[in-house]
Structure formats: C-alpha cells, structure tokens
Design a protein that fits this description.
CATH topology of the largest domain: Methane Monooxygenase Hydroxylase, Chain G, domain 1
InterPro entries: CRAL-TRIO_dom, Spectrin_SESTD1
Number of helices: 16
Distance between the termini: 213 Å
Keywords: Repeat
Pfam families: CRAL_TRIO_2 (PF13716), Spectrin_SESTD1 (PF24915)
Protein name: SESD1 protein
Strand content: under 5%
Family: Belongs to the SOLO family.
Order of helices and strands: EHHEHEHEHHHHHHHHHHHEEH
Largest sheet: 4 strands, parallel
Number of strands: 6
Length: 679
C-alpha cells in the first residue's frame, strides 16, 4: 500500500478471504511484489500484515509458514490480525513466538484496533483503522500500465537499436539487408511514448498531490523505482526513435527516388516504344469524311492511352519538384536529369499527338468542303440537265439569277477547297519531322496524290458546269428575247387596235371649209404613218420570234396567233383609213367648189354660164351625205360606223347648209337672166 513501519520498512498486506486460497498463486504473487522495491528498500525489511479476520486459522498458519520460504530474510515482523471472536484455543495452540528462531521473524496475533501499537495510523489503511489513502484497483491499473510500458519499451529499444546500428555500419548491401529485416518495429513508437508520458504524468501527480497539507505516499513513488525508470526509458526511447526517424527518412527518400526512377523509365519506355509505334502506323488521312472520322476515333483511342501516361508524368513531375525543393545536394543532379528526360519525351510525344490531331482535323475539313462542293456541282448539273420551260420572261430571269448564284457558290467552294487542300499539303510536308526516322515518302505521296486528285476532279467538274452554264445562259437570254418579242408584238397589236378604235370614234369631223378639211387630211396621213410604223414594228418582232424559235428549236406559244391578229387589225385599219381619206378628199372637193362659187361676184354672170358646175357640187354633196350614212365593211363581214349618230348628223347638217347656200347662189344668178329679155 505504500505504508511503512517504524523502521521505514515497507508494509506488505495479505488479505485473506473465506474462499479457498491457492498457496501457489499466493507464492507467485508474493514473489512478484517483493521484486518491485529496490535492494536498498529491501534491506530495511518488511512488515507483513496477514488479515485473517475472514479466514480459517489453518489457512493463516499456512500463509505464515509459507513466508519462511518466500521472504525469510526480508520479513522482520508478521502481524496476524485476528477476528473479534478469537479462534478456538485448540486450534491455535501453535505458538508463533516460540518458533521465532526457526521462522526467522517475529509473529504476533493482534486485533485490528490494536494494530496501531506496532504501526503508525498514518501508515495503515482504513481497513485497519488508519488514515492512509489507498485504491488497490487504481494501483493495479497503473502497475499493469507500467509493466506493459516497461516491456514494450525494452523490446522497442532493442529493435530500434538493431535498426539504427544496422544503418550506421557495414556495406550498403548489408545496411539495406538489415534495414529490410528489421525496418518496422513490432509496436508503434509513438504509442509507446504517449503511454510513457501519460504514465509519468500520473506518477508525478500522485507523488505531489498533497492531502491536508501533507504528503500522500504512493506505492509507485521513487522508492519503488517507478518514476526514474519511466523517465530513463522515455529518454532512451526518444533518442533511439529520433535516430530511427532519420533512418526511415533516408530510407524513404531513397525508396521514393528509386520508385520515381522506375516510374520515369516506365513512362519513357512506353512512350518511346508502344506509344511511338502506334503513331508510326497511323499515317493516312482517309479518302472521305467517314474515313477521316474513323481515323480521328482511332487517334482519340491512342490519345486516351497516352493520357494515362501523361497523368503519371504530371504526378512524377510534382514529386520530383517536391524533392528538388527539399534541397538534398546529393540527389539534385540525378533528379534534374530524370526530370529533363521525362519532360523531353512527354513533350515530344504530346507534340506528335497534337500534330496528328491537327492533320486529321484538316483532312476532315478538306473532305467536308469537297463533299459540299460535290453536292453543289451535282445540284448545278441537275439544274442544267432539266429542260427550261418557263412561263414568262420574269421566271427565266429568276432562273438565270439562281443559276448565276449557284455558279458563284461553286466558285467560292472551289476556292475554299484549294485553300484547305494547300493547308493540308503544307502540313503533310512537315510530317517527316516527327517520323522517328521512318521513311514516309510513299505514304505522303499517296496522301498528296489523293488531295491533288480531288482538287483536279473538282476543277474539271466545275469547268464542265461552267461550259454548260454558258450554253444555258445563251439559251435563256434568247428565250428572254423571244418572250420580249412576243410581248412587244402583242403590244403592237394592241396599239394598232387602239389606233383603229381612235380612228373610228374620234376621227369623225370633215371640216367646215376646204382649208380645215385639208388640215384634217394631212393629220390623217400622219396618223396613218404612225399606224404603219406600228404594223411594221410588229411584223419585225414576229419575224424575230420565228428566227429565235428556229434557233431554240421550239414552237412559239403566241406568235402563231399574234400574226393573224396583227394582219386582221391592219387590214381593218387600212380599209377604215381609206374610207376616211375618201371622205376627206370628197369633202375637200365639195368645200373647194362650193367656196369658189359662193365667193364669185354677181357682176360676173359669165362665170356661171355653165349649169354643170352647180350640178356637180350638188352631186358631190349628195355623194358625201350618202357616205356618211354608209358603214365601213370589213372582209369578215363585220361593220363599223365612224363616230356616233349625232356626230354623223352634225357633219351632214353642215354639208346640207352649204348646199343650201350654193342653191341660193344659183337662184340669185338665174334672176338677172330672167329680167334681161323683158327689158
């Protein structure tokens, strides 16, 4: 318990119980307990308290006798605490005091309340009426921790010493072999150190934790060698563990360097071996979009495999950078060489992958442009192969515009194809720079021939389409001209019809006198000239349509109807015009004769000697009046009148009035003739 007798000897308490006590177990326990104190402490002897209050006398006797064999030299006094009801005298006839010389120590029987006669109360626990504080379970737990710590510490010290000593001597091969065999201790040094520090803290706390201003003695105090032994072990452990950590650091650094070197060589060997071989076998660019896409997919698979190794490269580069930052001079040269070698190979391989990807992308764009251009040429050719049958000139113009737009689009497409092709050829010419010494002339020649062949084929197809477009353009322009001629010819017929209609409806006046009638006649001739020009223009247009139809090898849709219409209208106009001329000329003759007679003086009666003049004027007037009532008859039997009935009535009335004037004049001239014979 940590209590001491008056001679400063330790007190050993043996509590007995009602159950059967195993002497063997008790002997082992006593041996263990007596091994704990130091030799100096043992030399002061022990006072043993055998608590027999709950046990049998024969058990107590056996225990006391056993002490003779276990600790005879160290035991100075044995106090047997008897129960309140003392054992039967028959049983306790054995007198220990008579056996003192034989036992080697003094044995006394004492009650618990009288134990203080031999031992101070402050050195006794509460079980014996003392004041010494003692918790057996706490002592036991601490002792187990101490024993475990001591055992693990000694074992760990031996292992660490073996590891550390093996790393300090011998050849490098022996060093590595010894480290490999004992590199990992059987227990965790950190755990053992933590356990030791916690144990030491507990011991120091119990040692200096006073009660009522006094000192609380502990069975784990300095006299039991607990604290000094723990401190010594901790110091030794820290020293060996520090050396062990350095050994581990050096070994870890060496191992890490070897692993990095191994991984670097794995990356380099794969990139320069299988990786480069994959690129060597991929040289084509494909002959279509689908073929280029298939090559791109294959290249993506190659890139995916490379990406795994590039990821290893990034990780290795970071590890090497970390080691370089650590600043170990002995490894700097080797690390930098590894880093440079790894970077050179990876960057070269990455550049080749990028070059191949760009080449395939350029090939895909080239084939895409070629396909688009081919489709445009097919569309243009299909448009040219369809016969043109538009309804009018506007639709022909629209078709011609669409044709020109398609041709322009083809020109732009061919220009884009040439640019893409030249760019692709430039890239192929640089392919030999990463061919790893492989002769790619044959493969490149195939690619170059394919590209140039595609461009030449597209050029020939475009040229054929251009020739066909020229022919189609000429034909369509002729068709536009044909439609224009037909439209203009129809317009000429319309104009001629309008002139005929105007002649019939508005050209009705015959003039009030000879002068006016002559003016109307002159205007009519000019009017006829205009109609003649219109008719001639229509005839020329229709003749042009005939020529164009022969050139186009087609039948005009409207010229066959337009020509008869033109001739029919012109015939009607001619008949109507001739009738108009005849009426105007008759009117001129009528007005001239009438005006001549009306203007002659009465003093010249000899001028009117001939009766025929008056009769002629009257006949002309009547003839003119008759013509005003007669319609114009056309070859088809149809009839048309000049102007309205009122217009004709007005003209006829004017003629009649002039005829009346001539008649009056005639009468005036006859009266003097009648008076002369009478005179």
């Amino acid at each position: 318990t940590g209590g001491k007798d008056r001679r400063s000897g330790l007190i050993l308490t043996i509590p007995l119980c009602l159950e059967q006590t195993s002497m063997d177990e008790l002997s082992v326990t006593l041996d263990y307990l007596l091994s704990i104190p130091s030799e100096k402490c043992k030399a002061r002897g022990f006072t043993v308290i055998v608590d027999g209050r709950k046990s049998q006398w024969n058990v107590v006797k056996t225990v006391v006798l056993m002490l003779q064999n276990v600790v005879p030299a160290e035991v100075s006094l044995v106090c047997v605490v008897k129960p309140d009801e003392f054992w039967d005298k028959k049983v306790t006839h054995f007198c220990f005091w008579k056996e003192k010389d034989r036992l080697g120590f003094e044995v006394i029987l004492v009650s618990a309340n009288k134990l203080t006669r031999y031992i101070e109360p402050c050195q006794l626990t509460e079980d014996f009426g003392g004041t010494l504080t003692y918790d057996h379970m706490d002592w036991l737990n601490k002792r187990l921790v101490f024993e475990k710590f001591t055992k693990e510490s000694m074992s760990l010290l031996d292992e660490l010493a073996l590891i550390n000593n093996g790393s300090d001597k011998g050849t490098q091969q022996e060093k590595e072999r010894s480290i490999d065999l004992n590199f990992l201790p059987s227990v965790d040094p950190e755990t053992v150190l933590q356990t030791g520090h916690e144990l030491l803290s507990e011991l120091q706390q119990r040692r200096f934790n006073g009660s009522d201003g006094g000192v609380s003695w502990s069975p784990m105090d300095d006299e039991l060698l607990a604290q000094p032994q723990v401190m010594k072990l901790l110091d030794s452990l820290r020293e060996q563990y520090t050396r062990y950590q350095e050994v581990c650091r050096q070994r870890s650094k060496r191992t890490q360097l070897e692993e990095i070197q191994q991984k670097v060589m794995q990356v380099v060997n794969w990139l320069e071996g299988p990786g480069s071989e994959q690129l060597r076998t991929q040289w084509g660019i494909g002959d279509s979009i689908r073929a280029s896409q298939a090559l791109q997919q294959k290249h993506e698979e190659i890139e995916s495999q490379h990406s795994e190794w590039f990821a290893v490269y990034v990780e290795l580069n970071q590890q090497i950078a970390a080691l370089l930052n650590a600043g170990d001079e002995e490894d700097l040269v080797e690390l930098k060489a590894l880093q440079q070698q790894l970077s050179d190979v990876c960057y070269r391989q990455a550049s080749q992958l990028e070059f191949r990807q760009n080449l395939l992308q350029a090939a895909l764009e080239f084939h895409s442009v070629a396909q688009d251009l081919s489709q445009q040429l097919d569309g243009l050719l299909g448009m040219l192969c369809v016969d043109v049958a538009p309804a009018d000139g506007a639709s022909i113009q629209q078709t011609l515009k669409l044709l020109e737009e398609k041709l322009k689009s083809v020109d732009l497409g061919l220009q884009g194809l040439r640019e893409k092709g030249q760019s692709l050829l430039d890239q192929i010419s640089n392919q030999a720079s990463w061919a790893y010494g492989k002769d790619v002339t044959i493969e490149n020649k195939e690619n170059v021939d394919h590209i140039q062949g595609v461009m030449e084929d597209m050029q020939l197809r475009k040229q054929r389409c251009e020739d066909m477009v020229d022919v189609r353009r000429l034909k369509m322009l002729q068709m536009v001209q044909l439609f224009k001629c037909e439209e203009d010819a129809a317009q000429a017929v319309e104009w001629l019809s309008e002139l005929l209609d105007a002649l019939l409806k508005t050209h009705t006046r015959l003039g009030d006198d000879a002068q006016e009638t002559k003016v109307l006649l002159e205007k009519h001739r000019k009017f006829v000239d205009v109609a003649q020009s219109t008719y001639d223009y229509g005839r020329q247009l229709l003749q042009a349509t005939v020529v164009l139809c022969q050139s186009l090898r087609c039948t005009s849709r409207s010229s066959g109807d337009t020509l008869p219409r033109l001739n029919r209208v012109w015939k009607q106009f001619t008949i109507t015009s001739e009738e108009r001329v005849h009426r105007l000329e008759t009117a001129v003759a009528f007005h001239s004769s009438a005006e001549k007679i009306l203007q002659e003086c009465p003093e010249q009666p000899e001028a009117f000697s001939e009766e025929e003049q008056f009769d002629e004027i009257e006949a002309v007037g009547k003839s003119l009046l008759d013509r005003l009532t007669v319609p114009v008859v056309y070859p088809d039997g149809s009839e048309q009148y000049f102007g309205s009935p009122s217009d004709m009535a007005s003209a006829a009335e004017h003629i009649r009035e002039k005829m009346k004037l001539v008649s009056l004049k005639k009468q005036q001239l006859r009266q003097p003739e009648a008076t002369t014979p009478e005179s």
